[in-house]
Structures are given as structure tokens and as C-alpha cells.
Amino acid sequence: MANLVLILGDQLSTAISSLDNFDKKTDTIIMIEAVSEASYVPHHPKKIIFIFSAMRHFAAQLQNSGYHVNYSKLDDKENKQSISGEIIRIFKKSKFDKVIVTKPGEYRLLEEIKSLSKISGLELELREDTRFFCTLAEFKKWSESSKTHRMENFYQLMRKKHSILLDSDGKPEGGKWNYDSENRKPIKKNPEINLPPKFTPDEITNQVIDLVREKFSKNPGKIEPFWFAVTQKQAEQAFDDFLKFKLAKFGDYEDAMITDNGFLFHSVISLYLNVGFLDPKKIINTVQKKYRQGLVPLNSAEGFIRQILGWREFVRGIYWTFMPEYATRNFFNNKKDLPEFFWTGNTDLNCMKNCIQQTLQESYAHHIQRLMIIGNFSLLAGLEPKQVAEWFLSVYSDAFEWVELPNVYGLAIYADGGLIASKPYVSSGNYIQKMSNYCDNCKYDIKEKSGKNACPFNYLYWNFLISNKEKLQKNPRNFVMYNTIGKMDDSKIISIKKDSAKFLKNLK
Ligand code: DLZ
Ligand code: SF4
Prior knowledge:
The protein has 508 residues and is mostly helical. The protein contains 21 helices and five strands. It has three domains: 3-127, Rossmann fold; 136-193 and 246-322, Serine Threonine Protein Phosphatase 5, Tetratricopeptide repeat; 341-505, DNA Cyclobutane Dipyrimidine Photolyase, subunit A, domain 3, CATH 1.10.579. The relative contact order is 0.10. The model has no long low-confidence stretch (mean pLDDT 96).
């Protein structure tokens, strides 16, 4: 029996289920750099460099440990340039009995892989991805038994089931499940904290940089300097650095934003978790231990663990429970094209300019920059959900559709109509001013509510609520906002509508 075992670019772990019972004498691993995967959206060049270099380093590590690896490079002449095309080519060439695959993280690729079984002579074994706390069957069961899909309920279940941050009576550590209200301190000055550790590209990475420069230089985003970790060992170093220098303050400043430092106290490990370099179970245990040793406060440990055990697992469950229908949702029927500045950062809105320019430079922005600046603007401006999701999937190095789509549709732009959020996460400029220093250097005046100098978030916020009254007013969580609108005089409503129409008309 000879098996051909596929390892995808986001399955870079020897604990991946496709390697269970691997026989080094008879079995072969196949890893494929493919145009199909590298161009189904215009990925940021740093994302492609990261994934290709991580794949090449992982393949070398496997080979050094005695695994037989068939690695197809993007510029190999025979490369069929799709995952299924390459599997078929290698399968036929070397007469394997079976192809073994851990289910891919994206619906589109799972469908492509499933279609392989229709080829005569090709036996396909699909295995579950076991790198998560919650199985998809378990999530589906929870989802069917729950009236609403709220992360908080799911998260409490996970905390109990996996005994994480519980006291000796099985109650939540400190008495509360969630310390979100203690994650919102603003920062007004750069705290002079170190940036995330930077790894100098080695020969393998430099070869990939040259390849990406040749083939993908038109994609949005800067190629250099490239500094991401490309091996498991480096990713672990990056996490250790976070534990040592940043975790303690992460909780307080989780939602803060500042010009000139887009990383602050964030771990910047989501890309390493998502490709398989870091194991979420180990990460959470380590953070829990730091809390128990008294080295970090509870709002930091809980805030960090909530992102991984709560949000990350929750959005994955949502994605696989509601796909493919989920991707077609457009609750507000928004149709506006993305403005050109999403691809350049050239805009007068200083908050958007900062977050987009940082994204194009680093292929990274932290969650509040994504949610409350870029997502908030996309919803207030009525941008088409499909285009917004494609942008997020393209530009962030940690973006795979299972995690990106529910974050964008469910949290950032409410395109799913409230499947996961109890109300749209929208805000006027006030919130942005409170949580950042972006407004200090903006052409617009945060204090002005109307007219040509007014901060556009100020009138777009009310315009969004007024235009979508039918769909949102019934929700009791929006009561206060609609109560305020009810008290506005006609002239105010007219001026909100006029300013918004003018701004949106000029949005190219
Ligand atoms: C994102 C990505 C890119 C850019 N390139 C490849 C590739 O060439 N080969 C590969 O195996 N995986 C790549 N990936 C990651 C896949 O797109 C990912 O496995 C699917 O999106 C499922 O999550
Ligand atoms: Fe953004 Fe408005 Fe502040 Fe300018 S004034 S940075 S547009 S929130």
C-alpha cells in the first residue's frame, strides 16, 4: 500500500491528521505551489512570500526527518498549477493506491479536492482537521440547539469543557467570564515598545522573494522588507517575545490605535497559528500558566485566550455550518465598488490612510483597525460585501476564508444580517478619536458634525442608521440610536443626508 499525502500551505505541522500512520518506507508527501492558490485573489506579495517560504522550509524539515516529499515549485515546467492537477499528475506517474488529505480550510478547495474522487482509479481519504478545540460536528450540534449564535455562549462552553481559566469550583477565574470592558484603554503617545521580532530572510526566503517579485509584483502591497517567521522555531521565538514583553499590557491596550505603531502590544501570531506553526492548545496553556504564576493580569490572559478559544473557534464553526450560502449574503443590499484608495492608501481620511498604508506595507493590521476603521467605513459607505471580503482575504497574511469571511460578513459589515453580531459594529468619529490619535493630523475636523470640514464618519454614521431604519429599528439594541434620531429636527436630517450623498458621490 503506497499513499500520496497532500500537505497544503496552511497545514504546516507534523501533527496534521493526514500524516497519522504515515509509513516512511512506502508513502510520499506532496506539497504544491500553484498559480490557482496564489491568484484566486490578488494576495499581498508578503502573504505569498510567507506561505511559499514557510512551505519550502517545512518540506526541508520533513525531508531531514526521513519523509519522502514531492515538492512542486511554482516555476517547475511540469507543474499543472492547480492542487488537483498536480495530485493527478503525481498520482498517475508513480502509481499510488490512495490520496490522503486533511480537509482544506476553504470551501472552494474542499470542493475541488472532493471532485478528485470522480477520477477513475483514484481513491481519496479525507480526514478532519484536528488542530482545533471544537470539532465541526460538535459546533453544528451546538448551533442547532442554540436560538442565537453568540460567541459569548460558545466561549463559556469551551472554557468549561476544556477547563480553561476556571477556579477550583469550576467558576470563571476572577468571577467573570469576559473582561472585555477592561480591554479598552486608549493610547495617545507611542509607548516606545519594541516592534515584533524581525527575522532576516535566508537563502530560501530570498529565492522566494525573487520569484514573487517576478510573478506577483503588480499585487497590492510592499514586498520588502520581509521579516515574518518562516519556520516553526522562529514562530515560537516570536510568541516567546510577546509573552516576555507584551502580554502583560495586551489586555489594557487591546483596542488602542496609534499612528506610527500598528503593532503595539499585539502578538502578531495569527499568521503562524493559521498555517500550523503554532498549536492553539499549547499557546493557551502557556498563557494560562503565566496568569497562574502571577506574571500577567487576568484582563490580559482572558482577553488573549478569548481571541483564540472563543472567536477563532467560533468563526470557523460558523463558516463550515453556513457555507456556501453564507458567502452570498448581503443584508443591506450594498452595491458600491471599493474606492481606489483601498489599494493605495491615498485618502484624506487620516484613520483610513494610516490603517490601509500600514496594511499595504506590513500585510498586517490589528483587529480594531480592521473592525472599527476599515470595516466600519466599508459598512457606513455601503460597499459591496463581496468586494470587501475579497480585499480582506487578499491583503492580510493571516487571511484564509474560514476565518476571514465570518469576521468580515458577521462582525465588520453585518452582511449576514445579525447571524453572529447582535447589532452592527458602527461608530461615528467619536470612537476613533477616543481610541487613537489619528484625528490629530486629519484634514477633517472631528468636532464638526456637518459641512465640508466635518469628519465624514460623523454624518455617515447617522446616515447609515437613517437609511437602514426599516431593517434595524426593530432591534431593541438600536433603541437609543433611533430614539436620538426621532428627536432630530428635519433640518439636521436633511443636512446629514446631503453631506453623506455628496461624500459618497465623490468616492471613486
Ligand atoms: C494562500 C496560499 C497560497 C498563496 N498559495 C498556496 C500554494 O501555492 N499551495 C498551497 O498548498 N497552499 C497555498 N495557499 C494556502 C491555500 O490557499 C489554503 O490551503 C487554502 O486556502 C485552504 O485554507
Ligand atoms: Fe478619521 Fe474623522 Fe478622525 Fe479624520 S477626523 S482621522 S476621518 S475619525
